[in-house]
Write a structure and sequence with these properties.
The protein is α/β, with parallel strands linked by helices. Helices cover 42% and strands 15% of the residues. Strands 1-2-3-4-5 form a 5-stranded mixed beta sheet, sandwiched between helices. 32% of the residues are buried.
C-alpha cells in the first residue's frame, strides 16, 4: 500500500533471503528524504535492541515508528532514549491482518502531533480510503494503549461468539 502510493520503501530483515539491504546501516544510508522515517515491526523481545542499533545511525529530526504490538508503558522511555540522538518516536498500533493490504489497516498512533503530521502521508497510504481507519490517540504510548483496548474488545467478541456457538450446539 505504501509503495503503491508512490513512497520509496526499502525493506530490511535479519534474514538475508528476504532483505533488500544487508544491514540497518545500509538501510539508513539509503534513505535520502529528510526527515528519514524508519518503520520498525519486530517482536517486542527484539525491539529495544533494534532501537539501540538504529538510534545512533539516525540524526536530528528523523523518525522511528514502532508498528509492533508493544506494551504501551515502555513507549515514553523509548521516546526519551531516542531523543538523546535527536530521533523522534511514534508508537502505532496496527490492525487489519491479512486483509489490510486490500482493504486498509486501522492505525492507532501515539506521539507528538508534529511528528504524526510529518508521516501522515504514510498513514494515509496504509489506512482505508475516507475518514476512518486512523487515530492520533495522544502522546507517547497512546497508540499502543488504544491497540491493546482494540485487541481486548476483539478477543472478547471472539470468545463470546465461540461460547454462543457452543451453547447453540449443545
Amino acid at each position: 500500500r505504501v509503495r503503491a502510493a508512490g513512497h520509496r520503501v526499502v525493506g530490511y530483515d535479519a534474514n538475508p533471503e528476504v532483505s533488500e539491504v544487508a544491514s540497518l546501516a545500509e538501510l539508513v544510508a539509503g534513505l535520502t528524504a529528510s526527515p528519514r522515517v524508519v518503520w520498525v515491526m519486530v517482536p517486542v523481545q527484539f525491539l529495544d535492541g533494534v532501537l539501540d542499533d538504529l538510534g545512533p545511525l539516525l540524526g536530528e529530526g528523523d523518525i522511528i515508528i514502532d508498528g509492533g504490538n508493544t506494551k504501551w508503558t515502555g513507549d515514553s522511555g523509548r521516546a526519551e532514549k531516542l531523543a538523546r540522538h535527536g530521533v523522534h518516536f511514534i508508537d502505532c498500533g496496527v490492525s487489519g491482518g491479512i486483509w489490510g493490504k486490500e482493504y486498509g489497516y486501522a492505525l492507532m498512533c501515539g506521539g507528538d502531533a508534529a511528528d504524526v503530521a510529518i508521516v501522515q502521508p504514510i498513514f494515509d497510504a496504509l489506512k482505508p480510503a475516507g475518514d476512518h481507519g486512523f487515530a492520533h490517540a495522544g502522546g507517547h504510548g497512546a497508540g499502543h494503549f488504544a491497540k491493546m483496548v482494540h485487541n481486548g474488545i476483539a478477543y472478547s467478541m471472539m470468545q463470546a461468539y465461540a461460547e454462543g456457538r457452543e451453547l447453540m450446539e449443545k
